[in-house]
Amino acid sequence: xxxxxxxxxxxxxxxxxxxxxxxxxxxxxxxxxxxxxxxxxxxxxxxxxxxxxxxxxxxxxxxxxxxxxxxxxxxxxxxxxxxxxxxxxxxxxxxxxxxxxxxxxxxxxxxxxxxxxxxxxxxxxxxxxxxxxxxxxxxxxxxxxxxxxxxxxxxxxxxxxxxxxxxxxxxxxxxxxxxxxxxxxxxxxxxxxxxxxxxxxxxxxxxxxxxxxxxxxxxxxxxxxxxxxxxxxxxxxxxxxxxxxxxxxxxxxxxxxxxxxxxxxxxxxxxxxxxxxxxxxxxxxxxxxxxxxxxxxxxxxxxxxxxxxxxxxxxxxxxxxxxxxxxxx
Length: 329
Ligand SMILES: Nc1ncnc2c1ncn2[C@@H]1O[C@H](COP(=O)(O)OP(=O)(O)O)[C@@H](O)[C@H]1O
Ligand SMILES: [Mg+2]
Known about the structure:
The chain is an alpha/beta fold. It is about 40% helix and about 25% strand. It folds into two domains: about 5-225 and about 315-329, P-loop containing nucleotide triphosphate hydrolases (Rossmann fold, 3-Layer(aba) Sandwich), CATH 3.40.50.300; about 230-295, Alpha-Beta Plaits.
């Protein structure tokens, strides 16, 4: 197995704040790898270091076998980066935006033309190639950015929150492109997201990151299996009483959440729900609602951190300001 990326004790501090705290892992060639975590977890900072836009405080990493500290140019040439809606020129056409990028990478004009054709075809923007970007929807812009990130045929593509702010249908559409790039073109993809579903549906493996630390890393299926069965949520006026009555051997995990909801993990929940209701009834504990679902990555995050990823939405604008600062440096 060859690694596309190897990360060793990578750390980044901003004064006293440890944005990325001693992370180590490998990403395999050809895999779609997800960094999943809430706003401020350190996802963008990690991508910025791997793409040589930001220097690590300590630790090291290689991308396509090249050291991010000693071989910045090599790393940059071998990667494509798509950060949140930053740098398309609104006044230029799709084609002109691509062409400008191709010139930056010094692609010969015939190669450039051919690749622009191919990539605009791939992201289904060929018939819009002569329209100015100002007239494009959010999803079209993101597809154009991905096409542009692939123009110099990178082995590794970095996508920072690729579907942030897009509607569900466009998001789905974009997932299909990303999966296709990986499957048909063998490109290694590392993406960040705070959408559990995105990480679950798209990624071969997911690292869950919180406060700069990797708190879990595995395939989505293994992460969800680790929860210990199905998830049952109970709302009651007296959550503490619910917890004490349900301290029984066949419930593998029971927790009171910050919002007063009680979350239970158990195998074959359907068969046990009636017993749960009976136990609560016989102890005079009122039930406002009860629901069962298969575990999601949200449940995994909750089980490790005691909070939900959704509590805070990612802030695209803050990220954008950060790139701009880094690019100027
Ligand atoms: N240039 C910077 N200066 C100071 N603090 C920063 C800077 N960039 C990021 N941070 C902080 O580092 C932490 C991680 O940020 P970031 O990597 O952008 O998180 P994420 O992408 O997961 O939302 C946050 O607390 C953020 O405020
Ligand atoms: Mg970010």
